[in-house]
Write a structure and sequence with these properties.
The chain is mostly helical. The protein has a single domain, classed as Growth Hormone, Chain: A. 76% of the residues lie in helices and 0% in strands. Helix 3 runs antiparallel to helix 4 and helix 6 runs antiparallel to helix 10.
């Protein structure tokens, strides 16, 4: 078996593998577009609807919390009815409710549409990650699943471009609605998936519910340890990410006085670092293994966030650190999908991956609030560092206690 070059592995994929890679990458990019749009319209909504910051934060948190339910539910349904069918449903679901958000007239209406969007958002990752993991051969699985994660940075970048265009050409009270209406675009991806993406042979739907083992099967003596450790790993990678990215703009603006935060240049640095981190970690997970890559990026993210918040560096140094911070905090996600796919058996793969990843997401969604609470007794930067570093410590511990799965062949 020859070693693929940096991009040559893509040419080695069969047509079904390539179609699946294209579909899941597009799904995650459009997922990122729909979710990140909200971060750009927050200031306008606060002004137009006279929202408090707590209400604005609740609109973000509710999506993450309900996405945990969506991930677990979609994973379970994918084990029962197949990956491809449920992936189409989750994409349509979050696209429709993003679109409907553009018609809302109050905080409570938007809270409902955002919450319902979260069901599809969490479900799309859970199902898409299992689908790509099962569709790609073992030697390329880490690269493929990690590169799909990189689609999030692409979606984030498109959200930034659309935000700039909409708010440059349209009145603010119409521009924010337009951004949500554009969120219907992912629905078009369903047509491609329906025509071109086959159900993986290894994951043919199990029609007899008795063969699934039930949802509680992931808590059986054989899988309980894996379920707990995967949940802790997900909590660490997502808790650290949310603690950093939620509060970093506020920290740099209020404590570092960087007006550059409001420019496209700063955002471009973060997004570029994120994309590079996703792709680099994807390759390393196949080269070094899942565990070494996860530990490497957890250590890198911890060191970078400590430098951000404790070192006395100037504005240019702070801006420059945006690249490695985005690189390590985002790249830490890349090996997770392939790792989870390889850790759970076929009959519970969607259930296990959906539950553990989204349980971690739900717990991680609390970290920004905990950071805010801790600022009552210490500077914001120190609070960010404590929770982010603590999260990455949990991530490293869980990773080290799990078995290495690089190169294994998936079995029923």
């Amino acid at each position: 078996m020859r070693t693929a070059s940096q991009i040559g592995w893509i040419r080695e994929l069969t047509r079904p593998e390539l179609n699946t890679l294209t579909a899941t990458f597009g799904g995650w990019a459009l997922d990122g577009l729909d979710v990140m749009v909200y971060s750009f319209v927050i200031p306008t909504l606060i002004t137009a609807w006279r929202l408090s910051k707590a209400q604005a934060g609740m609109l973000g948190t509710v999506t993450l919390l309900i996405s945990a339910i969506g991930g677990g539910l979609a994973g379970r349904l994918a084990d029962r009815f197949g990956r491809v069918r449920i992936l189409q449903i989750t994409i349509l679901w979050f696209a429709v409710f993003t679109f409907l958000s553009g018609f809302t007239q109050s905080f409570w209406q938007l809270l409902i549409t955002r919450g319902l969007q979260g069901l599809g958002f969490g479900g799309e990752w859970a199902v898409g990650s299992v689908l790509i993991g099962e569709s790609i051969r073992a030697q390329h699985r880490g690269k493929a699943v990690g590169c799909v994660q990189a689609g999030w940075a692409i979606g984030w970048g498109f959200a930034a471009v659309l935000y700039t265009m909409a708010f440059s050409w349209l009145p603010p009270n119409f521009a924010w609605r337009t951004l949500f209406w554009i969120g219907i675009l992912p629905a078009l991806l369903v047509f491609f998936i329906r025509k071109n993406v086959p159900e993986p042979v290894v994951s043919a739907p199990v029609r007899d519910p008795r063969m699934l083992g039930g949802f509680l099967g992931i808590f059986s003596p054989v899988l309980l340890r894996t379920t707990i450790l995967c949940s802790l790993l997900a909590l660490g990678v997502q808790g650290g990410y949310y603690a950093i990215t939620t509060w970093l703009p506020t920290y740099l603006k209020t404590e570092k006085g960087l007006s550059v935060l409001d420019t496209g240049g700063y955002l471009a640095v973060i997004i570029a670092g994120s994309f590079a981190g996703y792709v680099c970690a994807a390759y390393l997970s196949d080269l070094l293994g899942r565990k070494p890559t996860l530990v490497l990026f957890a250590v890198g993210a911890s060191i970078t966030v400590m430098a951000y918040t404790f070192l006395n560096i100037g504005n240019s140094g702070t801006l420059a650190l945006g690249m490695p911070l985005g690189f390590f905090s985002s790249g830490a996600f890349s090996p997770v999908g392939a790792f989870y796919t390889e850790l759970f058996p076929r009959r519970l793969r969607g259930t296990g991956q959906g539950f553990t990843y989204n349980l971690g997401r739900a717990a991680g969604a609390l970290f920004p609030a905990l950071v805010g609470f801790l600022t009552a007794s210490m500077p914001l930067g120190h609070a960010i560092a404590i929770f982010a570093a603590g999260a990455y410590l949990v991530m490293m511990a869980a990773t080290l206690l799990l078995p290495e799965t690089k190169g294994i062949q998936l079995r029923a």
